[in-house]
Amino acid sequence: MENYLEINKNSWNAKVEPHLKSDFYFVDEFLKGRSSLNSIELDLLRDVKGKSILHLQCHFGQDSISLSRLGAKVIGIDLSDKAINTAKDLAKQSGTDTEFICSDVYDLPNVLDEKFDIVFTSYGTIGWLPDLDKWAHVVSHFLKPNGKFVMVEFHPVVWMFDDDFKEVTYNYFNEKPIIETYEGTYADPSASIVQEYVMWNHSLAEVMQNLIKNKLEINDFREFDWSPYPCFKHVEEFEKGKWRISKFGNKIPIVFALMAQKKSS
Description:
Blueprint: H1 4-21, H2 27-31, H3 39-45, E1 52-55, H4 62-69, E2 73-78, H5 81-94, E3 99-102, E4 116-122, H6 132-142, E5 143-154, E6 178-183, E7 194-199, H7 204-213, E8 216-224, E9 235-239, E10 242-245, E11 255-262
Parallel strand pairs: 1-2, 1-4, 2-3, 4-5
Antiparallel strand pairs: 5-11, 6-7, 8-11, 9-10
Helix pairs in contact: 1-5, 6-7
């Protein structure tokens, strides 16, 4: 899929406007000070005041700006130029010094020359990347010695099922590109957009082994039977801000999180 970047950039550009208008992203409340960060990532990030943070695949930057509000010096990057332009506008409206760069993850070392205390990525990111060895190399490249990588992501078990969670349709392992066309968007299923996209499934072993291969030591790993977002079909809110797929209850993992540290030598 040599043109997957172009396809996915177009897809994410198309999402920006409906996402800005959706309740999912609560932009009005966000601009009034509401944080977009969840307890899962905050527990691993801990105190970020005075820390430099690189936020990979930041969409239009709500998490990046939320980290800036906590006192961090943040640079967010994303493939979508429309998302990055929106992120810059939101940062200006929020009064933060958050910086944003439009770049593909793999190309970022050619664009940015800086090292960070923390590299952060969260929720629905690695599925857009075909090669996790290259991804982990980029993560390691941008970390200072003893810097930490914090990742929160939807569990690969979830991606095995069809959208209605009726049957196992996709391979748990990274077998081949998944090329599909989707109407609407997770933030607004009624949005009048039709998007082609290209994704890849990645097993937990693929994630962790590539981080280890690139000099990152995994110090914390967690799995959760809930999601902080109602972004799947047939979910129910069993506690405030916590959703599960109703037919599965607490029987399957929906999110995983990890913290890894860059080895000093």
